[in-house]
Every structure is written in C-alpha cells, then in structure tokens.
C-alpha cells in the first residue's frame, strides 16, 4: 500500500519533503493544509469558493455528521461529496477527539466511546465497527481510526492504557475496513499515534501502528494544552518511528509558524479551525502577523488586507470596507475574511512546496517565521 504516496523532493537541511498523495477524488500535493468542514461545510464558504482558493482537500467529522443529518441519510444522497456538492477529496475524523473535547459527556471503555449527545442528550456509541461503517457511508477518501486522546497533563499509567487501547482499536478498525471492502474501493485509512509527552510511549505507539501497515499516519494528542516547545518536541520524536514512505499528518493545528516548523520536521498534512474561526471575529493574517480589522486605524485604510495577494477579498475590497462590514456585523465580512485567511494558509503551504523543490526551504522558512513573529510596524 505504498504506491498511493510519491515523494517528489526532500530538503537537504531539514526533514521537509514534497510529495503527492493519490485519492479516489484526485491527487493531493503535499505538504498540504486542509480546511475544516466539520458538519459538511467550511463555515461561510461555498464549494466553488473553496476551489477558487485552491483547497485540495477538506475535512468532515464522523461524530457530528452521524448526529445530524445521520450517515445513512448522507449515504442515500450518494455520500458526502454529492450531499455537499464538493468533488475533491475528503478526510473524515473518527470522533475520537470528541472524547477529549466532550469529556464530561463521554465515557471510554474497551469497546469504544459512549457519548451523551451535546445536542439533545441522547446516547451515542462509537467503536471501531461504528466509526468505519459511518465513514464508509460518508464515502470518505481518507478515514481516521478511532483513538484515545489523553489530556495534558496526564499520569503515565493512564497514558499507557490509552496507547495500548489506541493500538487495539486501530487493529480492529483495519479489520472492519477489510471486511466492508473500504480499502478495495480505493480509499485510505490512517492510524493515529498517541503518547502524550512520554517519548517512550510515542515510540511504542508509532511502532505498533506502523506494523499494521495503514495508508498513512497521524500524530494525535498534540495541541491539547501543552506548551508549543513540548508540542514540537513530541512531533519530532514521533516522526522517526513512522514509515517514511507514508504520509504524516498532525491533527488540529496550527499557526503559520507552527506549520512551517513541523514541515521542517517532516510533516505532510495539517488541519486547523484557526483561520476560519478567527475570521468570524474580525482577525486576518498577514506576513507580519495576525491583525484585527476592527482596529480603528483601518477605518479609512484604502489598502487591501495584504498587498498583492491574489484572492477575491484582497483583489476587490479595502480594509476600510471590510472593517465597516465587521463592525456592522454583516455576514459578508465573515465570508470575505475566511476567504482571505484560508487562502493565506494555502498559499503559504504552496510556497513551502515550491521552496522544498528549489532546495532552499530551510533558509526561506526561517526568514518567513522571523518576519511574521516580528510584526513589522510598517504593516500596522
């Protein structure tokens, strides 16, 4: 199962790599950022707008989509691609993270995770059989196994149990995927390595899952409250024990500098709600850091959000107009700022791909991060 991922170039001064991942709904050029469409939509944008900003793949969520509208209904409409009008690849998270984020509404056992629905309190159960069957109904191009995500901080003995259970669940997910013909249809299943901040458990998880020969591997349980240096360290200590011929995915992060740092560690895939979430609160990204359009200094500013950036928001509207929309609480402000922020992320990752191919990724990324974190006053 290695012919679906091709390595095109590597960086001589870091572990950065340029690749291509084949899926049923098209190729994905890596490194790649994946906009989050938890409930079958990237908030505020149409599929056409996503294509216009060159989004190659988006995410859905098993837990949320199974609650509403229900995976059986989505299946009856031809799968999630048809249901939401998106013809590109889709990755679906298994719902395992919701056991962490909805800890007060969930209970973990050997069989899986029992939830109390955050919508109406009804009982929901997700185990390996359920999550793989639901993702088959959704027609996911990449399905994630169910895993146990330990909180930060956690006791080592609790993390040991979580790592061991994650491996057992992953093995069962793989068996279910084989039984229902998921892999035969040209789709992929990715496993998720856990281990919190314990290096020996990170290695154990990565090695056990690698032996099961999944299509790709995610590094889970990072960005759950630990300091950024610890997060980067745990990603760095996990990667050497994952198969180099398979794509690597860090889940649920990050900021632009974090992504570039992790690309340098050898990560291929990212997702994060940050660019779309902050857009709904008036924040926008620039090469000199994140700004907020509500700031009074933008009230008469005729310039675009970022000079020369080729997206619909920057090409057509001034900061003054976007500030007006945001202060007036017009829905259009959310759409335009989301277009810009997601384009900013996708364009940054495209630049990273180009610099890996040209051989100067390390120096370029270091300079880019320094400029971003300096917050040059000329852009304020």
What does this structure look like?
- By secondary structure, this protein is an alpha/beta fold.
- It is 41% helix and 18% strand.
- The protein folds into two domains: 5-272, TIM Barrel; 286-379, no CATH class.
- The protein contains 15 helices and 16 strands.
- Strand 13 (248-250), helix 10 (256-265) and strand 14 (269-271) form a beta-alpha-beta unit.
- Helix 6 crosses helix 7 and helix 13 crosses helix 14.
Structure described in brief:
With 380 residues, the chain is an alpha/beta fold.
Strand order of the largest sheet: 4-14-13-12-11-10-6-5
| Strand element count | 16
- Overall domain count: 2
CATH topology of the largest domain: TIM Barrel
User: For the terminal residues, how far apart are their CA atoms?
Assistant: 49 Å
Return residue spans where pLDDT drops below 50 for at least 5 consecutive residues. Answer: none
Output mean pLDDT. 95
The best one-word shape is: globular
Instruction: Please tally the helical runs, counting DSSP H or I stretches of 4 or more residues.
Output: 15
Provide the structure class: alpha/beta
Largest sheet: 8 strands, parallel
Q: Briefly, what CATH class of the largest domain?
A: Alpha Beta
Helix content range: 40-55%
Throw out a few tags for this protein.
380 residues, TIM Barrel, eight-stranded parallel sheet, 15 helices
SSE map:
Layout lengths: L4 E6 L6 E7 L2 E5 L1 E3 L12 H6 L5 E4 H6 L3 H6 L3 H5 L5 E4 L4 H4 L4 E3 L4 E4 L6 E4 L1 H11 L3 E3 L11 H24 L8 E6 L5 H12 L5 E4 L8 H11 L9 E3 L5 H10 L3 E3 L2 H6 L3 E4 L2 E4 L19 H5 L2 H9 L3 H28 L2 H14 L6
Parallel strand pairs: 4-14, 5-6, 6-10, 10-11, 11-12, 12-13, 13-14
Antiparallel strand pairs: 1-2, 2-3, 7-8, 8-9, 15-16
Helix pairs in contact: 6-7, 7-8, 9-10, 10-14, 10-15, 13-14, 14-15
């Amino acid at each position: 199962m290695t012919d679906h991922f091709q390595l095109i170039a590597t960086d001589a001064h870091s572990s950065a790599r340029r690749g291509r991942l084949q899926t049923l709904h098209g190729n994905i050029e890596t490194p790649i950022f994946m906009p989050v469409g938890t409930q079958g939509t990237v908030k505020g944008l149409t599929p056409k707008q996503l294509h216009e900003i060159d989004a190659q793949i988006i995410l859905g969520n098993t837990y949320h989509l199974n609650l509403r509208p229900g995976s059986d209904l989505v299946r009856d409409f031809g799968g999630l691609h048809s249901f939401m009008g998106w013809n590109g690849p889709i990755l679906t998270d298994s719902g395992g993270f919701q056991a962490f984020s909805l800890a007060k509404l969930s209970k973990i056992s050997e069989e899986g995770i029992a939830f109390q629905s955050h919508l109406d309190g009804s009982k929901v159960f997700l185990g390996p059989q359920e999550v793989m069957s639901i993702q088959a109904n959704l027609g996911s191009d990449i399905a994630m196994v169910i895993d146990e995500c330990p909180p930060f901080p956690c006791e080592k003995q609790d993390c040991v149990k979580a790592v061991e259970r994650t491996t057992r669940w992953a093995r069962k997910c793989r068996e279910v995927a084989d039984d229902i013909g998921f892999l035969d249809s040209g789709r992929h299943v990715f496993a998720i390595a856990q281990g919190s901040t314990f290096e020996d458990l990170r290695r154990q998880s990565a090695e056990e899952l690698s032996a099961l020969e999944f299509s790709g591997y995610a590094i889970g349980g990072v960005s759950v409250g630990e300091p950024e240096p610890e997060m980067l360290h745990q990603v760095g200590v996990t990667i050497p024990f994952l198969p180099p011929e398979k794509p690597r995915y860090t889940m649920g992060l990050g900021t632009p500098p974090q992504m570039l740092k992790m690309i340098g560690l050898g990560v291929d895939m990212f997702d994060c709600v940050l660019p779309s979430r902050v857009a709904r609160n008036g924040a926008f990204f620039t090469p000199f850091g994140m700004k907020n359009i509500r700031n009074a200094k933008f009230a008469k500013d005729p310039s675009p959000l970022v000079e020369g950036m080729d997206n619909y928001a920057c090409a057509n509207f001034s900061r003054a107009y976007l500030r007006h929309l945001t202060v007036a609480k017009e829905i259009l402000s959310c759409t335009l700022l989301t277009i810009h922020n997601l384009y900013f992320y996708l364009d940054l990752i495209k630049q990273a791909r180009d610099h890996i191919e040209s051989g100067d990724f390390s120096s370029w990324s270091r300079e880019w991060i320094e400029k971003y974190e300096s917050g040059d006053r000329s852009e304020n």
